[in-house]
């Protein structure tokens, strides 16, 4: 679910109109096709293409006329053009905008304002979709089912429900023809990136594009997301301050995901109502554990820390995780590389730093490129390197980070650019997304000691064994 959702799947006590199974009869609605249709792709190409043609002309024209592109003006026009396109393309562009240096700062700022919501499905269409997923007798499986969606996202919408056992549920139903939309949008995204790469070669996004393709296609499979939820319940079973809802397999399909509904406040509402700094610090601590216990113990990351994907329990500061479409597994050696780079920056061991980058997949690292990469890494690892309580952005503030990112981008462009490995997409997204949350909380924590708690007994072989057992138990395939 996206950051701009009005409500979330975990909130109880809805006032929307609901049906009683005794009040309605199934209409026997027809099936809806989910084929990757040629017609669906053509519609999507035309819709996106009209918005992008003028902007592409600006890119190419400025490139070959030797005129400097006004990135501030152009990025605003880009947002306006794409703002009318809903769905997976917006999700892909938003992910891309969080990767340092993949886009100029002005582009990232504009694109992060994009909304990823699609128009809601009306009640007649919802009935047809539910009939397709659970059969003509689907209503008898529920005692209540909200006619209006309680949350909207880029790929689906959520309805409140209650089953015959009285459990409060949230049912996420995928929008129609999403496979066609995803495939069409990914082709358009390749075109956009290719045009931009001709203008700026600082970051080669080839592997990033491949990663976006794989992860967005996975998000179409709600049965995989159901197994992701089982995996997170398994990995976080010993974390008392993090909660993952239970799924209801018998009421779920590849395009319908049903889970227990939980409460809690959205983070922005929580911030409005909670001024106690100690409480805010505990929320930040719990968020850190929710994201990084799975990574350092199991090599798994939740790549979507949008504000709409979790809630906070005010009394206990428990974090409720709600959405699991964007999950990635990592090689144990990749996780070890993260820790190796930390030690390298801490001790000034640049050979170890070079080894870490190569472990991740960076190639052709000369001393100049290594220096620039370490410049950015030192900033990102900064909170972990200082053994004292501090805010995530430090005394230098966010302006320093923006200036440094711009400097790194210019240096990489001068040196011929780099090609980040695909695994960095969700790692960067998670780190930047969580950093934004920590800044909203104004959390003051000894991040160094929190990090040390996670890595003090790190063993790559032990991680590999835990990861294998967890993935096998929950039926989740490992990524390569």
Automatic annotation (TrEMBL):
Keywords tagged on the record: ATP-binding, Kinase, Nucleotide-binding, Transferase, Ubiquinone
Domain ABC1 atypical kinase-like stretches: 113-352
GO biological process: ubiquinone biosynthetic process
Highest rank taxon of the organism: Bacteria
Keyword presence, Cell division: no
Molecular-function GO term, any one: ATP binding
Region (Disordered): 1-38
Ranges of compositional bias, category Basic and acidic residues: 1-17
Family: Belongs to the protein kinase superfamily. ADCK protein kinase family.
Name of the featured protein: Predicted unusual protein kinase regulating ubiquinone biosynthesis, AarF/ABC1/UbiB family
Organism: Limimonas halophila
